[in-house]
Amino acid sequence: VYYNQNNAAVTQSAIQNAISSAIAANVTALKESSSILSSFDVYPNPANTSATLSLTISKELIIKIEVHNLLGQKIMTVHDGNLIPGENSIKINTTELANGNYYISCYDGNTSKKIKLLVQH
Hints:
This protein is mostly beta strands. It has 1 helix and 7 strands. The strands form 2 sheets. Strands 4-3-6-7 form a 4-stranded antiparallel sheet, with no helix packed on it. It starts with 11 loop residues before the first helix and ends with a strand.
């Protein structure tokens, strides 16, 4: 994402929207499969000190769950290992995260899903 800092029409919000669009374009290029991961949600959203990620999978998988900032930089790995079929809940400690928007990404090696998380302390 390129911008001219001397252009008064370019605001922080416009830059964040451009970055979010660029990140979404990169992530959606990965194959998404709704048959293996049937639900993927985070609550409460916005989160203060913690959030719970709820996901339902149809078969046992090795799943990696990461939190990324709006620049696409990995902030933390929340889970990296097996999950059993059915509903799974994973707690995310947000106390060390600055206020702002983040993406929670879920990968199984072939497919990817992401969801936005807002942190407000």
